[in-house]
Design brief:
mainly alpha, 0% strand
Length: 202
């Protein structure tokens, strides 16, 4: 009996994942910059664009055996689910007992863990494209700002660092989303993403 392997081809999910990242960071940065107030209407975008859109991209990257893409999109999808749940707890959705027993420094350590995660992913991004590398560097600065401000270190300046980093993440992620869609759609380099650095891979 002859064994046959069937390979199911799927489209690159990077465009959707980057669009999800762009949308949630745009809305979230507006709150950090003081342009908007509260997190009530940031929450839906955190759950559906930051969470589910990136989780969808993660699952499809995993099917394509793209370990880097699956880990990146999956890690940040779970981050936004965690942040969304944090906001629900802070606003008393799960009851007053939880909301009254918050130690905000625990969130600071979670941000610190994601800084470590992002530093590792930044190294990996050097062999993807330069736009993605810039996005990861900006996410590094976002988590530096979030970690330090939440832990009470230079709170105002670190909050501003996080806010502006998040805004620029959104700008570059919108560009990355557009490039991934249009380059694939036109089957040519319509918007350049920049070649890998070629340091770790030749």
């Amino acid at each position: 009996m002859e064994n046959k392997q069937i390979k199911i081809a799927t489209a690159d999910p990077s465009a959707l994942g980057l669009f999800g990242l762009a949308m949630v960071t745009l809305v979230a940065s507006s709150q950090k910059l003081g342009i908007t107030n509260g997190v009530s209407l940031v929450l839906p975008w955190a759950i559906f664009l930051g969470g589910f859109a990136q989780l969808f991209a993660c699952i499809h990257d995993a099917r394509k055996q793209n370990v880097f893409g699956a880990t990146a999109f999956g890690g940040y999808a779970l981050f936004w689910f965690g942040v969304g749940t944090t906001w629900l707890i802070q606003n008393g959705v799960f009851g007053s007992t939880l909301s009254k027993s918050i130690d905000i420094k625990q969130l600071g350590f979670a941000f610190l863990g994601y800084l470590i995660f992002t530093l590792v992913m930044t190294v990996g991004s050097m062999e993807t494209n330069k736009v993605l590398f810039i996005i990861f560097v900006l996410i590094d600065f976002l988590f530096i700002g979030l970690s330090l401000s939440t832990l009470g270190i230079a709170e105002h300046s670190m909050h501003l660092l996080a806010a502006y980093s998040e805004l620029f993440i959104s700008i570059f992620a919108f560009y990355g989303f557009a490039a991934n869609v249009l380059n694939a759609h036109f089957n040519k380099v319509f918007l350049p993403l920049g070649k890998p650095f070629g340091i770790f891979k030749k």
